[in-house]
């Protein structure tokens, strides 16, 4: 039987009288498909230029999954890498939560398909949908099961095959997105922390800014819906841009305040990788140096729910984040949704 953590004093939940266990991220892993699509490749598809894409977004290239490679394949590979790093077998996983807007199919869940692919025969599995904010939403949900002692090992995955819902004739969107997956293994580790806090938010009144109208119960697939392009992602870029900056900035302040932390104490900020100009604006408002902010969108574009998960794995892999460092994750996406998490790595 696990005992209560001794070192609970910085846990904001403990300050509010919560007596559950802390939740550590014991490992992370990621996977991106092999195929690279450069800005020059897109110049051959739509009326765009490397100069426009680079200067307006910071994106230089993105990964695109093969025709026979699905979101569950990307997620399973990221999950296997995370599990292998800490020597945890698939059988030990008790819960799989997958954040995605591009499930293999509407049902069953992509989490169930990943369960089978990684041999997690003892795990419960479900998907959550909070668009690009999904990874922090899933981390927060996963954490609840660790803190409440329901499960010992939870696998959280952000995985997307966005290339499957992109209109490759629409220059407003096709240059922005890419495919990939990231995963985190959650456990209770006595004397260590992990997630100090995670805050989540949503504003459904702005659902029209970024969505995919077709395929759901409101607009099932018909010849007409397909011909009208309703099964592609659509976005009002400018409005989404403004909302992203405001929401991530506010979420960051809320998360830091909850932990009684100053931004100067944060070693690394990992924002959702949607647009370099959004990242820079948020960083400026928060008062962080550019070298405190992790950026990899030049290589992957916007991978939605996988975005901060892949970035976290790369930042750890590159030694930018060391055990004990404080890390701030920031996300924003359709819904609208947003979130921030403070991690003691
Ligand atoms: O992850 C979910 C959250 N998503 C985001 O946070 C994305 C938020 N939005 C953005 O990142 C930016 O709004 C975009 C990158 C999508 C667009 O940048 P923008 O500076 O807001 O450009 P715009 O939409 O105002 O378009 C400016 C011009 C337009 O031409 P006109 O009307 O001025 O003649 C567009 O048609 O740029 C044109 N344009 C392009 N030109 C070349 C739009 N896309 C392209 C393109 N190549 N790919």
Structural class assignment:
alpha/beta
Calculate Rg over CA atoms. 19 Å
Q: Numbering strands along the chain, what is their spatial order in the largest sheet?
A: 1-7-6-4-5
Shape, please? Answer: globular
* SS elements, strand count: 13
**CATH topology category name of the largest domain:** Peroxisomal Thiolase, Chain A, domain 1
**Mean pLDDT across all amino acids:** 94
Provide the helix percentage. Answer: 25-40%
Low-confidence stretches: 1-9
CATH architecture of the largest domain: 3-Layer(aba) Sandwich
Instruction: For the record, give the distance between the C-alpha atoms at the N and C termini, rounded to a whole number.
Output: 25 Å
CATH top level of the largest domain is Alpha Beta
Number of helices: 12
Topology as H/E string?
Answer: HEEHHEHEHEHEHEEEHEHEHHHEE
- Kindly give the count of domains: 2
The fraction of residues in strands falls at: 15-25%
Secondary-structure topology with pairs:
Layout: H1 12-15, E1 24-31, E2 36-38, H2 39-43, H3 50-57, E3 61-63, H4 71-86, E4 95-99, H5 110-117, E5 124-128, H6 134-147, E6 154-160, H7 171-174, E7 180-187, E8 194-202, E9 210-211, H8 223-227, E10 234-235, H9 237-258, E11 268-271, H10 276-286, H11 297-300, H12 307-317, E12 326-333, E13 337-344
Parallel strand pairs: 4-5, 4-6, 11-12
Antiparallel strand pairs: 1-7, 2-3, 6-7, 8-13, 9-10, 12-13
Bound molecules: oxa(dethia)-CoA.
Oxa(dethia)-CoA is lined by residues 48, 52-53, 56-57, 132, 171-172, 175, 210, 237-238, 240-241, 244, 274-275, 278, 302, 332-333.
């Amino acid at each position: 039987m696990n005992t209560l953590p001794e070192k609970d004093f910085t846990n904001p939940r403990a300050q509010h009288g919560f007596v559950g266990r802390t939740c550590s991220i014991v490992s992370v892993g990621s996977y991106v498909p092999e195929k690279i699509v450069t800005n020059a490749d897109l110049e051959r598809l739509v009326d765009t230029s490397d100069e426009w894409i680079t200067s307006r977004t910071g994106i230089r290239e993105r990964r695109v999954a093969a025709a026979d490679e699905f979101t569950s394949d990307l997620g399973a590979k990221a999950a296997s890498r995370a599990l292998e790093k800490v020597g945890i077998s698939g059988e030990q996983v008790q819960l799989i939560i997958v954040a995605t807007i591009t499930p293999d199919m509407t049902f069953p869940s992509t989490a169930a398909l990943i369960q089978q692919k990684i041999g997690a025969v003892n795990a419960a599995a479900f998907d959550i949908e909070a668009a690009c904010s999904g990874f922090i939403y899933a981390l927060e949900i996963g954490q609840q099961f660790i803190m409440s002692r329901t499960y010992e090992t939870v696998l959280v995955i952000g995985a997307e095959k966005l290339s499957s819902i992109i209109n490759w004739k629409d220059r407003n969107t096709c240059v922005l997105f890419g495919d990939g997956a990231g995963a985190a293994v959650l456990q209770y580790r006595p004397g260590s922390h992990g997630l100090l806090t995670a805050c989540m938010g949503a504003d459904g009144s702005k659902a029209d800014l970024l969505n995919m109208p077709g395929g759901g119960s409101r607009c099932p697939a018909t010849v007409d819906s397909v011909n009208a392009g309703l099964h592609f992602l659509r976005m009002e870029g400018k409005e989404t841009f403004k909302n992203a900056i405001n929401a991530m900035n506010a979420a960051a302040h809320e998360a830091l305040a909850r932990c009684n932390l100053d931004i100067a104490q944060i070693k690394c900020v990992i924002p959702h990788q949607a647009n370099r100009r959004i990242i820079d604006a948020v960083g400026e408002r928060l008062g962080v140096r550019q070298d405190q902010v992790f950026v990899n969108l030049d290589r992957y574009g916007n991978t939605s729910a996988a975005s901060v998960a892949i970035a976290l794995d790369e930042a750890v892999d590159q030694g930018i984040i060391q055990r004990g460092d404080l890390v701030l994750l920031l996300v924003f996406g359709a819904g609208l949704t947003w979130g921030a998490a403070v991690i003691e790595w």
